[in-house]
Amino acid sequence: MTEQPNGQPTIVPDTPIEAVTLERVAEIFDSENLEYRIEEQPVSEDQTVQLLRTGFSNTAIALQLRGNTLTADSVWRGTVPASEGPNLLMLINQWNQTHFAPTFRFFEGPENTLAVSGVRELDITHGASRNQIGAFVMSTLDAILQSFAWIEEQYPQLVTWEEHQND
């Protein structure tokens, strides 16, 4: 939905099911007034991949088309000491057993730290309508923010940044 000049929402009609592109994903970000950028990321000397990047004060998010899948991958801004590995594994397992999305995981970061990551995917083999893409994008962003807020409750001492207050 978008807003008319009088503040009333305008319901945008759904579209036919079509091939999913990052440009179509970007239309959702535009309609919701969310900031993003589309960029080319090198994966080898002669190959790049296109990403839609966005984020919030506590997470970086990248959306990418991988074959027949739209993937939303995120990384939490906090870094967990490697000594917390067993506890972090328990927490990630707990999240994954009780929540639909995102799927949590972690990996080794620099300087003996662990990075928490969340991922969610949408099968786009047969394409998607505008509303299907919008539902995936918006529910994914919400789920990522909720999941990292939960991690921050578990590790409040690792939150070293301030929330941006936008009026």
Return the CATH class: Alpha Beta
User: Overall 3D geometry?
Assistant: globular
Which percent bin holds the helix content?
25-40%
What structural category arises from helix and sheet content? alpha+beta
State the domain count. 1
Radius of gyration using CA atoms only: 18 Å
Beta fraction of the residues?
25-35%
Give a description of the structure.
With 167 residues, the protein is an alpha+beta fold. The protein has one domain (14-156): Yope Regulator, Chain: A. It has three helices and nine strands; from the N terminus they run ββαβββββαββα. The protein has helices at 22-31, 85-98, 130-154; strands spanning 2-3, 9-10, 37-44, 47-56, 59-66, 69-76, 80-81, 103-109, 113-123. Strands 3, 4, 5, 6, 7, 8 and 9 form a seven-stranded antiparallel β-sheet that branches. A two-stranded antiparallel sheet has the order 1-2. The longest helix has 25 residues, at 130-154. The relative contact order is 0.18. The mean pLDDT is 92.
